[in-house]
Amino acid sequence: MKFTIEMPDVSACSVDRCAYNVRGACHAKAITVGDGVHPGCDTFTLSQRHTDGEVEAAGVGACKVAICKYNRELECEARSIEVDFDEDEAAATCTTFELA
Ligand code: SF4
Ligand code: SF4
Asked: Domain coordinates of the chain in residue numbers?
């Protein structure tokens, strides 16, 4: 089965130690964000090996961070998001997050 769903783009990700990262872009089909409070990328996969980058660009499939101003019914309504590594949290993190 094939789905066509409108999702916010992951426009950039600098977490190059993730398997889905190819040249600063995420090539998972869709990512999930959040453990409830911290806007971490749950799809982050630590790996030396990387996907081939054939998937054009990732979207945000779901986000569990209800306290973000872009979150509506546990989905992201931003136009696009960016992901970076948060050294304090030691986690790949959505930097588009803003407290509602
Ligand atoms: S950390 Fe998340 S957004 Fe970045 S490449 Fe990995 S899965 Fe994609
Ligand atoms: S912008 Fe907000 S709602 Fe969208 S993925 Fe990031 S934390 Fe979740």
From this structure: 9-94
